[in-house]
Design goal:
By secondary structure, the chain is an all-alpha fold. It is about 85% helix and about 0% strand. α1 (about 5-30) packs across α2 (about 35-55), α1 (about 5-30) runs parallel beside α3 (about 60-75) and α4 runs antiparallel to α5. The longest helix is centred in the first third of the chain and has 29 residues, at about 5-30. The radius of gyration is 16 Å and the shape is globular.
Length: about 120
């Protein structure tokens, strides 16, 4: 990869992580409660965009910049797992299970929708 691509990865990753923080905070502040709706929103929208990129058959450096640097930084597996663990640790087993099932279902559905849209674009 060229130096320009690496610089792009750094810049886009920084912007995407900031967007994740802002969106997560915005959604979480309006949803209240302990359920991690902010992370759910971020990961579902990221899955939709990754599906769209796949459907559009994006490859090469453009995929590195959009899929890996941007959406890979925007979405967050570790936060999802941490929040699920925290729910279970606090005795909220049903909420933890719902978080896992809902996140997986929305993620898979969003990827499928994005691929379909991208393939017909």
């Amino acid at each position: 990869m060229s130096a320009a691509v690496w610089v792009g990865v750094a810049l886009l990753g920084g912007l995407a992580s900031t967007a994740r923080f802002l969106i997560d905070s915005f959604v979480a502040s309006r949803s209240g409660g302990e359920f991690p709706f902010g992370t759910l929103t971020v990961n579902a929208t990221g899955s939709l965009i990754l599906g769209l990129l796949s459907g559009l058959a994006v490859t090469g450096n453009l995929l590195v910049l959009t899929g890996t640097a941007t959406i890979g930084t925007y979405t967050t597996f570790s936060t999802w797992m941490f929040e699920t663990h925290r729910l279970a640790e606090n005795g909220k087993f049903r909420a933890a299970a719902i978080n896992v099932v809902l996140s997986l279902a929305l993620g898979i559905g969003a990827v499928a929708l994005g691929r379909t849209i991208g393939a017909h674009w």
